[in-house]
Write the structure tokens for this entry.
Amino acid sequence: MLKLDGINKIFNEGTPDEKVALDHINLHLAPGDFVTIIGSNGAGKSTMMNMISGALTPDIGAVSINGNDVTRLPEYKRSHFIGRVFQDPMAGTAPSMTIEENLAIAYSRNAKRTLRFGVDKKRRDYFKTSLERLGLNLENRLSAKVGLLSGGERQALSLLMATFTKPSILLLDEHTAALDPSRAELITRLTKELVDADNLTTLMVTHNMQQALDLGNRLIMMDKGQIILQVGADRKPDLTIPDLMAEFERIRGEKMNSDRALLG
């Protein structure tokens, strides 16, 4: 389904500000995998998401989706089979347009149509049925401007729009981080429901370790542009936050000792 093979990315190469953002990343997802990603700031999590979405191009390596090499495919072309929800609830929707208009755009993502096409009763009923799944009464506010929605409502709408066309890959980039606890809990629940309902292949970046443990069937930990830990479905349900912290300290300690040995 998704393959990252030998991905390297360096920013500002050859300058005093040079930074290795991704260092030989290899990651393979099977259809239906739901992988949560944790790591400190600067670990390379969002850079990897941007590499998958096409916002960035690797210096070395290849990105494949559904068996097709998309490494050089631009972001706007990948959007036909990638859904993405960002941390900022203001991103991913058009605030000056209505809920119905936003949904119409998302619905037509895979069709060659203009933005100004009619919404017939059948489609409007489908929009309402889809919105009912959110439990926020948005199905009765189709004509409301999206810019007037609360952060939680808007993020829920963004999540629905990203999953509308059942994308090959769903990217969730810290999509609950900017919300208050109650709204974050709502979006977390909706995420699980929507992903499970359509068996979507999903990558989710989060700083919330408990969330990373509770959601998905796989977990990866990143540090300094590398994937330092991968946990599969056989082990993940038994892990705790102290386990993850202990793994991180153990791996980092081993790497420090290895680096010292190389330096003599």
Remarks:
- The longest strand covers residues 19-29.
